[in-house]
């Protein structure tokens, strides 16, 4: 019976194939269970290798730190060198500061007499103009109108001298360089006063009264002319230089304090680093004893 043989053969083949599959499966199970053990062992070994590598890195860092800390105990070291440099910088800055003295010029600047400066003409705006009378000398100023800016002009008008000059106010027999300086000083001072008068007019207040003597007051320190607020531009510049040096001094002293603090910190850390290094080396020895090599 062909069909029966065929059926039997198919059944046999099927059973053999199933058995084969089972056998494969059981083989897979066996090999997979031993692979896990293997992998686990590998993981532990790998972790230890990485740990050893980290410990060796830490050992070398600590050795470097220990060397630095040891140096901090030497009589001369990088910190004492830097402190010495900074001490010299402090001395230099202090000497520079001492050296800033107003040099009294041998030529003394004149102070003019108390001729009052009067306002003889004043128009507040569009365009503003103002005329000052100093004795018989009249000097007129007018606002310069910048047509491009009109409509949104919010600053005070800029005054230009349009007539008169200070030549007739100059004292006779004056040294030419001082005379030139005085001429410039008076032109500048009068223009500032004209602006002041205009500002007071706009604010509805009285301008301060002013004389030529007020405009040529001398600085007690350097003999130069003071400005109308009683300040000496020359001495103000020297003062500014002193303040710059003071700022430098603060910075240098701060850095010196920081270096000293760092030096002390290094010295304090020495025993701590020693202990950490010992612990690290002990850990390394333990791993090495187990045959671990760094990753
Ligand atoms: Zn001065």
Account of the 3D structure:
- The chain is α+β, with helices and mostly antiparallel strands.
- The protein has a domain at 117-217.
- Helices cover 61% and strands 8% of the residues.
- The protein has helices at residues 2-71, 78-99, 176-203, 212-215, 233-289; strands spanning 117-123, 129-134, 137-143, 159-163.
- A four-stranded antiparallel β-sheet has the order 1-2-3-4, with helices on one face.
- The two termini are 71 Å apart.
- Mean pLDDT is 85; it is low at 22-32.
- Zinc ion binds at residues 102, 219, 221-222, 224, 232, 234-235.
- The site of zinc ion has 8 residues, from helix 5.
By secondary-structure content and strand pairing, the structural class works out as: alpha+beta
> Terminal Cα separation, in Å?
71 Å
Assembly of the depicted chains: single chain
Principal-axes geometry comes out as: elongated
The helicity comes to 55-70%
- Please provide the ordered H/E string of secondary-structure elements: HHEEEEHHH
Number of helices: 5
Small molecules held by this entry: zinc ion
Largest sheet: 4 strands, antiparallel
Radius of gyration: 47 Å
Q: What proportion of the residues form beta strands (DSSP E)? A: 5-15%
Low-confidence stretches: 22-32
Number of strands: 4
In what order do the strands lie side by side in the largest sheet? 1-2-3-4
Rounded average pLDDT: 85
């Amino acid at each position: 019976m062909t069909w029966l043989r065929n059926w039997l053969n198919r059944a046999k083949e099927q059973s053999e194939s199933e058995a084969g599959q089972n056998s494969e499966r059981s083989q897979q199970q066996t090999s997979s269970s031993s692979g896990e053990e293997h992998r686990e062992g590998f993981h532990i070994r790998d972790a230890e290798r990485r740990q050893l590598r980290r410990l060796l890195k830490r050992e070398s860092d600590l050795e470097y730190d220990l060397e630095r800390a040891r140096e901090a105990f030497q009589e001369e070291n990088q910190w004492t060198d830097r402190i010495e440099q900074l001490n010299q910088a402090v001395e230099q800055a202090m000497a520079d500061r001492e050296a800033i003295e107003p040099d009294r010029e041998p030529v003394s600047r004149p102070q003019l007499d108390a001729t009052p400066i009067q306002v003889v003409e004043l128009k507040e705006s569009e365009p503003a103009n103002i005329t000052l009378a100093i004795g018989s000398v009249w000097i007129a100023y007018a606002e310069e109108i910048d047509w491009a800016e009109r409509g949104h002009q919010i600053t005070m008008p800029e005054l230009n001298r349009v007539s008169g000059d200070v030549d007739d106010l100059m004292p006779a027999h004056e040294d030419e360089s001082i005379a030139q300086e005085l001429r410039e000083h008076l032109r500048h001072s009068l223009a500032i006063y004209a602006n002041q008068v205009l500002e007071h007019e706009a604010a509805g207040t009285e301008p301060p009264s002013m004389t030529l003597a007020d405009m040529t007051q001398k600085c007690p320190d350097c003999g130069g002319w003071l400005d109308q607020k009683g300040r000496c531009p020359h001495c103000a510049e020297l003062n500014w230089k002193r303040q710059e040096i003071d700022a430098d001094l603060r910075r240098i002293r701060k850095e010196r304090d920081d270096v000293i603090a760092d030096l002390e910190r290094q010295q304090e850390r020495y025993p701590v680093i020693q202990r950490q290094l010992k612990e690290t080396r002990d850990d390394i020895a333990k791993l090495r004893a187990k045959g671990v090599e760094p990753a």
